[in-house]
Specification:
The structure holds 2 protein chains of 2 kinds. In chain A, 40% of the residues lie in helices and 21% in strands. By secondary structure, chain A is α/β, with parallel strands linked by helices. Chain A folds into 2 domains: 184 residues, P-loop containing nucleotide triphosphate hydrolases (Rossmann fold), CATH 3.40.50.300; 139 residues, Beta-Lactamase (2-Layer Sandwich), CATH 3.30.450.190. In chain A, helix 4 packs across helix 5 and helix 8 packs antiparallel against helix 11. The termini of chain A are close together. By secondary structure, chain B is of the alpha/beta class. In chain B, the strands form 2 sheets. In chain B, strands 2-3-1-4-5-6 form a 6-stranded mixed β-sheet, with helices on both faces. In chain B, strands 8-7-11-10-9 form a 5-stranded antiparallel β-sheet, with helices on both faces. In chain B, a hairpin with a 3-residue loop joins strand 2 and strand 3. In chain B, helix 6 packs across helix 8. Classes of the chains: A alpha/beta, B alpha/beta. Chains A and B meet through helix 9, strand 9 and helix 11 of A and helix 5, helix 8, strand 9, helix 9 and helix 10 of B. Strand 9 of chain A pairs antiparallel with strand 9 of chain B, so a sheet runs across the interface.
Chain lengths: 348, 338
């Protein structure tokens, strides 16, 4: 329903498949399935060791503020022979994520990547190529940057040789063991949101007029951030914001009325349940009922503020404690921001 | 502080059973993941932990390798087992030599019987996550049964817990252990009840600040809205502990948290220098909010809510402020003089 509204809003997103699609590729054992499991099924990063190798293309549909589908192609299949419908896949997808295992020899990956880019760009000149230099948790800080530089250099050189200069290609250093994968995925998804500029603008206005240092618009379920204001962002800030969402949702779920239909009876409270309940059954339930919010004060004078917005989105802000006496005004402004968001998604 | 009460806790169990891991998680803010870095404990590691105003926990983390163990029961015997307030014996649920573990346990009891007959005995059946869910209860019961049988002859009463570092069960066990060592825990309980009544709170929980173990809790309204989750206190401990860790990335500590949840409002604030209090209020206007889903009428309802919420917020914070002095006094009460 939403996307049809969007399409009316700006006609150029038209295509046979209404939801923007992300295709994920890479050589086998590169970490594609792990990324999908950790991002969209709340799997613990350590448990991804036990994932079986993917043998057939799998699609996980993901819907919240925006519907999109991540299609994962197994690395084993020989791209040029087996996939006759490559044209069709590329022409409907918005972004191509190519996962490179940085702990392995990546020369083979690069050749594979190059041929895929040629195909993809041929089928869809507007496609965003996103290269995830993955598993960097095993590399030292210096070596990560070296690897990124080396890979960037090689890929762009080869593309230049072929005379392809207008390819939109970006490189991300990622690991499922920290927040980098969320950040990288956020960047990928952001490029597919037509309203991004408007959202950023709204956040900028909100920050300027409410004494907010930094504001993020998060998707609660996946912890992807949809937009942020234009002030510089550092990783610790982003990490604490995602953690803040986690604890807010977890705490709320402890005391929330269970509105979901009763499924299985809970195990006896004395027995030990496996890992944390919520992680075992997939994505965390998005709170129903009254929109949740929370405020937390830190000892260094920072205030964390969270307010649930429309469509499973949450606004997370960092403020100084000086703004605290005027919190009512800030909340008043945030109400306007929420109205703006509602209008943005109801246009048409 | 001269009058501070020292409590000697012995932490024992075979090597690799997870003694140091649990100690690091509870008292040193490690995450379960971080404990992989821990090496074997050499001999006895002493840690002195301030707990509340007037209590020091002397935790004796006893390395579990056989060579050390033999020492404990021979040359170091009276050093180790004298003046023990509590013995925490950790059983590895996957242990291949369970019989030997139980023998060691009995040996501990025998020595305690001789040197500190008033000691409290706790048995933690650890690494429960390695057992399949359906079997956990049985495994735990079977082990506890044999422990109770053996300990009966020393007239000790064993309190058992099934634990794992991967969920909140560890907090449950340690909260219970620590609570039995706090002499004025009933005084806390009484005053917390009064506080809850005056504030018309649904639930009030008192935590120790650094470990986030539950000291005392009061539930006034077990309203149907509450998930009847009896492990919720430990879960809160666990969640807040994680939050504390992520705050430390910004080189800060968190001071307070207020949650405007979908069905309740929760406040977590500093009570005294060593405790934090959490107050949970249900939403009085809940029935209306959850039923109407129309955009515009909800906007109105929200306006009212936020106004009422503001007032409630201030009342609770004021209550906490007033109660602070009282709780500081309770905390400083010298247990030995009572």
């Amino acid at each position: 329903m939403t996307m049809s509204a969007d399409e009316m809003h700006d006609g150029h997103t038209a295509g046979p498949n209404p939801s923007p699609r992300i295709v994920m590729m890479g050589l086998r054992r590169g970490g594609k399935s792990s990324i999908c499991q950790v991002m969209f099924h709340n799997m613990q990063p350590l448990d991804t060791l036990y994932i079986e190798s993917t043998t057939a293309p799998t699609t996980s549909v993901f819907s919240s503020f925006i519907d999109f589908a991540v299609m994962e192609l197994p690395g084993q299949i020989n791209f040029t022979e087996a996939m006759i419908d490559a044209e069709r896949i590329f022409s409907t997808c918005g972004a191509l994520i190519y996962v490179i295992d940085s702990q392995d020899e990546y020369i083979n990956s690069l050749a594979n990547l190059h041929s895929i880019i040629l195909h993809a760009v041929n089928a869809n000149p507007n496609i965003n190529i996103e290269v995830f230099i993955h598993k960097v948790d095993g590399l030292s800080e210096d070596f990560r940057l070296d690897a990124q530089r080396d890979i960037t250099q090689r890929v762009t050189d080869e593309l230049l040789d072929d005379g392809l200069v207008n390819v939109s290609i970006s490189f991300h250093l990622t690991s499922i063991f920290d927040h980098s994968i969320y950040e990288a995925f956020s960047r990928v998804v952001q490029k597919l949101i037509p309203q991004l500029a408007t959202l950023e603008n709204l956040l900028n206005v909100l920050c300027q007029h409410s004494g907010i240092d930094k504001a993020f618009l998060f998707d609660i379920g996946s912890k992807i951030f949809v937009a942020t204001d234009s002030s510089p962002m550092d990783i610790p800030t982003y990490e604490i914001c995602t953690d803040f969402i986690d604890i807010t949702v977890d705490m709320n779920n402890l005391y929330a009325v269970d509105r979901r239909p009763k499924t299985a009876t809970r195990t006896d409270a004395n027995t030990i349940t496996g890992r944390a309940d919520s992680s075992s059954n997939g994505v965390k339930p998005i709170p129903q009922g009254r929109p949740i919010g929370s405020t937390s004060r830190l000892s260094n004078g920072v205030i964390l503020y969270l307010q649930q917005m429309v469509k499973g989105l949450a606004l997370v802000c960092l403020m100084r404690k000086e703004s605290m006496p005027k919190i009512a005004l800030v909340e008043y402004n945030i109400e306007f921001f929420r109205d703006a968001l509602e209008q943005l998604w109801l246009i048409g | 502080m001269a009058g501070s009460a020292r409590r000697k806790l012995l932490l024992m169990g075979r090597s690799g059973s997870g003694k140091s891991s649990m100690r690091s998680i509870i008292f040193s803010n490690y995450s379960a993941f971080d404990t992989r870095r821990l090496g074997a404990t050499i001999d006895v590691e002493h840690s002195h932990l301030r707990f509340l105003g007037n209590m020091t926990l002397n935790l004796w983390d006893c390395g579990g390798q056989d060579a050390y163990m033999d020492n404990y029961f021979s040359t170091q015997r009276d050093n180790i087992f004298r003046m023990v307030e509590a013995l925490i014996f950790v059983f590895d649920v996957e242990s291949k030599e369970l019989r030997k573990d139980i023998e060691t346990f009995v040996l501990c009891l025998r020595n305690l019987y001789e040197f500190s007959p008033t000691a409290k005995i706790f048995a933690l059946v650890h690494k429960m996550d390695l057992v399949v869910v359906e079997k956990r209860q049985d495994v735990y019961r079977a082990l506890m049964k044999s422990l109770e049988d053996t300990s009966a002859m020393f007239s000790f009463k064993v309190q058992g817990f099934a634990t794992t570092i991967w969920d909140e069960s560890l907090y449950k066990a340690w909260s219970s252990i620590v609570c039995t060592l706090i002499p004025n825990v009933t005084v806390f309980q009484r005053h917390l009840q009064t506080f809850a009544d005056i504030s018309e709170a649904d639930e009030v929980i008192l935590f120790e600040k650094t470990t986030f173990l539950v000291i005392s809790h009061v539930t006034n309204v077990p309203s149907p809205g509450f998930r009847s989750d009896s492990t919720r206190f430990e879960k809160i401990s666990n969640i807040i502990k994680q939050y504390k860790q992520s705050c430390s990335k910004l080189r800060a500590q968190f001071q307070s948290l207020s949650l405007r949840g979908s069905d309740c409002t929760a406040y977590l604030d500093t009570m005294t220098a060593n405790t934090m209090i959490m107050v949970i209020m249900s939403n009085k206007t809940d029935s209306r909010g959850s039923t109407d889903l129309l955009g515009n009428s909800e906007a109105n309802a929200e306006g009212d809510d936020s106004f009422a919420g503001e007032a409630e917020n201030n009342i609770i914070l004021a209550n906490i402020k007033i109660a602070r002095k009282m709780f500081e006094k309770i905390e400083m009460m010298n247990p030995d003089e009572r």
